[in-house]
Amino acid sequence: MATEIVDVDKAARLDPEMPLDVKSDRLANLEDPDEGLSDEERAKIDRKLLWKLDLRLLPWLSLLYLASFLDRTNIGNAKIDGLSKQLGMTANQYNATLTIFFVSYSVFEPVTNVLLKRLRPSIFIPSIMIGWGICMTLMGTVHNYSGLMAVRWFLGLTEAGLFPGIGYFLSCWYRREEFGVRMAIFFSAAALAGSFGGLLAAAIANMDGVGGKAGWAWIFILEGLATVVIGVASFWCVYDFPDQARFLSEKDRARVVRRLALDAQSSAEHEEFKMSYFWASVKDWKTWTGAIVYMGADGSLYAFSLFVPTIISELYTTNFLSGYSSIRAQLLSVPPYAAAAILTVTVGFIADRTRQRGLCNIATSILGIVGFSMLLGCQSAGARYAGTFLGAMGIYPAIANTISWSSNNIEGVYKRGVSLGFIIGWGNLNGIVSSNIYREADAPRFYPGHGTVLAYLVVFLFGGSIVQYVLLRRENAKRRRGERDHWIEGLDQNEIELLGDKRPDFMYTL
C-alpha cells in the first residue's frame, strides 16, 4: 500500500497536472529529513512510515466504529428477541425510538469536527465513547417506551462525533491515492458489525432470565459495558494529528507533513478556526452534491441495517423451514454483511488505484438497485435473500467511497472538517426516513420500505454520483484551459495556498 516519497522533480511526474513551480514553493519552507538520499532510499523509508501509520491508526479506529455501529443498530436484533413485546410498544413507537436517535445524531454532527480539532482527537473521541457506552448500558435497564426514547436521544448525541471525526482525522494523515482503501477498511467495520452483531446477539440471547433480565436487555448491557472499556483504553490508543502524534519521532512527523504537502494538502498544518472557513464550506457546491450522494447511500444503509433482521425473520417464517427461532434469524443476517465487507475494501483499493471514485460509486449503486428490485419483485424466498446480498454490496462500499471522494476534493483543515460534518450529518438525517418505512403492517413483503430504498439508490446515489462526476470533470477541464487563473491574480504564494481547493492548480479527483 505504500506510496513513494520523492523529490520535487519526481513529484511533478507523479502528479503532472500540478505545475512544478507550485510544488517547489510549497516544499521550500518544509524540513526534509531525508535530504541527500536516493529515490530508492526514500521509498524504503516511506514504506516503513506508511506501514507504521496503518498499524497504529487503522486497527483501533476500526474497532471503535465497529462498536459504534453495533451499538446504534443492535436494537434491530433486540426487537426480534422480544424488546417491543416486553416494553409494550406499538410498531409506531418502535419506529419512533429509531427516529429520535437520528435527530440528535444529525443535528450535532456538523459541529463535531470543529470540536475534534480544538479538543484533540485523543481527548474528544475517548470521551464521547464512554458517554455512549453508558447510554447503551442504560438501554438494558429501561422499563417502558419513554425511558427507551430518552436514552436513544442521548445515544445519538454522544455518537455524533465519531464517524465524521474519524473520516476527517484519517484524511489528515494520508495522501489522496492512499485514503480510499483505508477509509474502506475502517468502514468495513460497519459491515462486520452487522455480521458480528447477529452472531453476538444470538449468543447473548441465551442469557434470557439471568439476573431477572430478558435476553434483549443483556444485548444492550454487555455491548454497552464493552464500549465503556474500549473508550477508556482509547485515551492511550487514539492519537492526535500528525504534527503532535506521540508515536512518531520528530523526523517522522516532518515526513508525514512533507508527503501531504507533495499531495497539495495542508491538512497536517496548524490553522486557526475562522468563520470564513465555515462559510467557504457552505458556499461550496461540492458540499451539497456530496450531501446528496451520501444521502442516497446513508439513507439506504440505515434502512438495511436496522431492519434486515426483521426482513430475514419474515422470509424465514413465511418461506423457509418450520421451527423458526430468533437465533436462526440472527444467524441468517451474517452472510450478506460479510460479502459487503469484502466488496467495501475491494472497491476502496480499486478507487485508489484508478482515482475514479465516481465511476466506482455508479457501479456499486447498480448492484444495490438490482438487489432491492429483487426484494420488490421476486416471489421466491431464495431470490429475495439473494437480493439482501446485492443490496448490502451496493450500499456499504458507496459509504466509504463517497466520504473519500468528498475528502479528496475539499482542501483546508477546517473547511474539510465542516464540509464532512454537513455531508455526513445530512446523510444521517435521512435515518429519520429510514426508521419509518418498514412497518409491521407491510410484512412480509415490505413494498413501501423496499420501494423507498430503491428510490434513494436510483435518484440520490446513482443519479447524484453522475451529476457530481460530470461537474467535477467540467471544472477540471476549465482549470486546464486556464479559465480559473484570474482567481489568483495579484495574490502572493501564501494567499494562494489559503485558497485550498479553489487554487487553479488543484485538480479534482473524479
UniProtKB/TrEMBL annotation:
Keyword Membrane listed: yes
The record, for SUPFAM superfamilies, names: MFS general substrate transporter (SSF103473)
Transmembrane segment boundaries: 95-116, 123-145, 151-171, 183-204, 216-239, 291-312, 332-351, 358-377, 383-405, 417-438, 453-472
Q: Which domain of life is it from?
A: Eukaryota
In the UniProt record, does the keyword Membrane occur? yes
Q: What is this protein called?
A: Major facilitator superfamily (MFS) profile domain-containing protein
* PROSITE patterns named in the record: MFS
Give the subcellular location. Answer: Membrane
The record's Pfam families line, in alphabetical order, gives: MFS_1
Cite the Major facilitator superfamily (MFS) profile domain residue spans from the record: 57-510
Mention any one GO cellular component term assigned to this protein in its UniProt record: membrane
Keywords (A to Z) from UniProt: Membrane, Transmembrane, Transmembrane helix, Transport
Gene Ontology molecular function terms on file = transmembrane transporter activity
- Membrane topology of the entry: Multi-pass membrane protein
Q: Which Gene3D superfamilies match?
A: MFS general substrate transporter like domains (1.20.1250.20)
